[in-house]
Amino acid sequence: MSAPPTETRRDEPTSDSISDPLALPIVDLKSPTLAALLAWLVPGLGHLYQGRYFKAVLFAVCILGTFLGGVCLGGSPTRGWGRVVYVEAKGRGGSLFQRLPYACQLAAGAVAMPAIYQTYRASKDSVVRQEFMYPPLNEDEVNSLHLELGRFFELGTVYTMIAGLLNILAIYDAYGGPVYVVDEEPTDDEKRRKKKPGSDGANGQPEPAA
Amino acid sequence: MNAFALAFSSPLFGQAAWDLAYAVPLILAIAFVYSATRDERTGVILHRGAKLSMVLAGFMILVFGVLAALSWAV
User: Fold this and answer.
1) How do the residues of chain A divide into helix, strand and coil, expressed in percent and rounded to 5?
2) What Rg, from alpha-carbon coordinates, does chain B have?
3) How many C-beta neighbours within 10 Å does residue B26 have?
4) Is residue B40 less than 8 Å (CB to CB) from chain A?
């Protein structure tokens, strides 16, 4: 993969349509790789490092807020918070990749990492604990979590997964800058050429140089 | 009362409609994060984010209405 340009465009137009792609704000991406790594670890941190403060706050609030909302929905004071974020359920013949939602949740960065430590603890002593991001040890515990939390178990899973998936967009933005949506509208120059096909030669084609 | 009217006057419909409130934070987060990755200008991000969240919410309400009607009518 080639390194992205460290700068994009200049000047700040007022409308949200982009008729001139060259008239766009400058973005100093600094070190894109470091920014992407920081953006993965803590949503918004990569943008903060790049000095893109508005986006840093927006990503932190939206992504961390969604993830923490999911942690609260997918848990309870008695069963522990964040029970929807776990790497694998022991005894289900599971491996890391059998808990696919965790792959999405891990994209949210450091906030999902306590689940790895908790899974390591669970693999050591196999003690049932009602703790933060502690994995269910068997099928019965998974069922009891579903029974107690009801639809909030699924809601919590969806919230935390979407937070991780949104952070992938934020990571790419920190690495490569914004993906501007350029209008498909023809420019004034192109419109003029279409109106007067004879002026540029036959069938609107430019005349060959003499 | 026909099946369509029954669908929308049921207490279960009220509960399901209230559950849609859980989609609101998700819609806002998705709309604003997506818009933020498409531009760098604050005003444009907020404007497009608000517009996209309306579109997403409208689409979800439409699909919800159709599914609620179908689930009771069939």
Assistant:
1) 55, 0, 45
2) 16
3) 21
4) yes
Nearest-by-CA chain B residue for A15: B44
Q: Tell if the CB–CB gap between B29 and A166 is shorter than 8 Å.
A: yes
Reading phi first (left if > 0) and then psi (alpha if -120 to 50, else beta), residue A131 is in beta
ipTM of the complex: 0.83
Name which of B28, B33, B40 is nearest A170 (Cβ-Cβ).
B33
Cα–Cα distance measured from residue A72 to residue A209, given in angstroms and rounded to the nearest whole number: 70
Please answer yes or no on whether A179 and B29 come within 8 Å at the CB atom.
no
Q: How many other CB atoms are found less than 10 A from the CB of residue A179? A: 12
Residue A197 and residue B16: Cα distance in Å, rounded?
60
Condensed to tens digits (0 to 9), the pLDDT of residues A120-137 reads 888 888 788 899 999 988
Task: Determine the pLDDT at residue A94.
Answer: 52
* Cα atoms in the 13 Å half-sphere on the side-chain side of A12: 9
Residue in B36, B39, B42 nearest the CB of A180: B39
